[in-house]
Recover the amino acids of this structure.
């Protein structure tokens, strides 16, 4: 299953990833991780911090992402 | 087919590309507004749409604290702009021989030339080859990203606070510790000698139910009869032997025989950082009383002489 990485641009700060709040390692962010799994996991083997998405507090952002994902599927 | 001014013919595709770029930029802003921000409220400031995560963070004291982090969605959005990098225009124009000279300017009229294979309606003679590039982030969006990345908010989740202690009045007996003297370095004290004794404190039940910090301060009676190692308060624990060392004063021999030399132990109990109670325990120290009696000077009254 292909997971679209939310990477919008390479100039300046690269989006589509976030810094792990515990170890500052880059955590790749995908639609699948956010919309299906509902969590992000730090890939640093000595950290493995789990960032659990608080769905109730992120409703607007989640619906925006769903809309965006549908739009991207349509054009691809 | 009508003839056009030559400059109109040349400019038309360029203007069209400019228009396309403008529309593209407008759409980019629309998308950004649609996805990156919360829906507009009447008269209110639009807030960035955020994703909220919770995670466990290790604290310096080794405990784990549930933390909340809010990240603006704009940090993740795959919305990118494109713009025309290069455009190659191929025209085949047919210039009208009836070129006019109007208002002192040469006016060339022309039309797109018919191609040789003009038998199909789709064939044309204006070929535009456009190469697109991913557009550099507009400065405004860069600023927005920068502002939103600094707007990542970490909020500690409220800890489950332990129930506040019930303010129970402290009721301690007057003497809340008993002392048992286990050892003495000598049975009696002598002037200018080092002396040591070991005592074992026993906390009474009434004290044990409080998480009390018990400390003692040593002194002597008469004042200055004994000098101690460590003059500060010393913490003691229940059933934990405690050694007291002191040096006797060379002057204790000069005290009256009736004077008792005492080791004074001021015991203080602190509960929740507050002084709750204290008492003084005294241990009488036997000293060697000099048998040597001071010489008595007897003055005899002169006898009355009766003459």
């Amino acid at each position: 299953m292909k997971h679209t990485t939310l990477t919008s641009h390479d100039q300046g700060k690269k989006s589509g990833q976030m810094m792990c709040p515990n170890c500052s390692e880059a955590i790749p962010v995908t639609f699948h991780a956010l919309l299906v799994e509902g969590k992000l996991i730090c890939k640093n083997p000595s950290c493995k911090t789990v960032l659990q998405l608080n769905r109730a507090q992120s409703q607007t952002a989640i619906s925006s992402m769903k809309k965006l994902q549908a739009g991207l599927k349509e054009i691809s | 087919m009508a003839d056009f001014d030559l400059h109109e013919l040349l400019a038309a595709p360029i203007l069209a590309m400019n228009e396309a770029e403008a529309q593209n930029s407008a759409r980019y802003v629309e998308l950004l507004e649609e996805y990156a921000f919360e829906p507009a409220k009447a008269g209110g400031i639009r807030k960035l749409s955020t994703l909220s995560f919770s995670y466990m963070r290790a604290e310096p004291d080794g405990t784990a604290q549930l933390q909340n982090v809010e990240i603006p969605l704009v940090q993740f959005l795959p919305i990118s702009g494109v713009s025309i990098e290069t455009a190659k225009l191929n025209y085949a124009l047919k210039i009208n021989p009836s070129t006019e000279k109007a208002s002192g300017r040469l006016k060339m009229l022309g039309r797109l030339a018919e191609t040789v294979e003009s038998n199909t309606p789709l064939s044309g003679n204006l070929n535009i080859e456009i190469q697109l590039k991913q557009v550099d982030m507009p400065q405004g969006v860069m600023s927005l990203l920068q502002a939103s990345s600094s707007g990542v908010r970490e909020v500690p989740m409220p800890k489950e606070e332990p129930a506040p202690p019930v303010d129970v009045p402290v009721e301690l007996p007057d003497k809340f510790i008993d002392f048992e003297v286990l050892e003495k370095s000598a049975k009696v004290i002598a002037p200018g000698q080092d002396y040591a004794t070991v005592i074992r404190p026993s906390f009474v039940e009434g004290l044990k139910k409080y998480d009390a910090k018990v400390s003692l301060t040593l002194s002597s009676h008469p004042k200055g009869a004994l000098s101690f190692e460590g003059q500060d308060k010393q913490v003691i624990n229940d059933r934990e032997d405690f050694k007291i060392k002191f040096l006797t004063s060379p002057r204790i021999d000069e005290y009256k025989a009736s004077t008792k030399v005492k080791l004074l132990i001021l015991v203080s109990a602190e509960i929740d950082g507050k002084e709750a109670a204290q008492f003084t325990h005294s241990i009488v120290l036997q000293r060697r009383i000099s048998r040597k009696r001071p010489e008595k000077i007897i003055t005899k009254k002169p006898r009355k002489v009766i003459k």
User: Anything to note?
Assistant: The domain at 177-285 of chain B is CATH 2.60.40.2410 (Immunoglobulin-like).
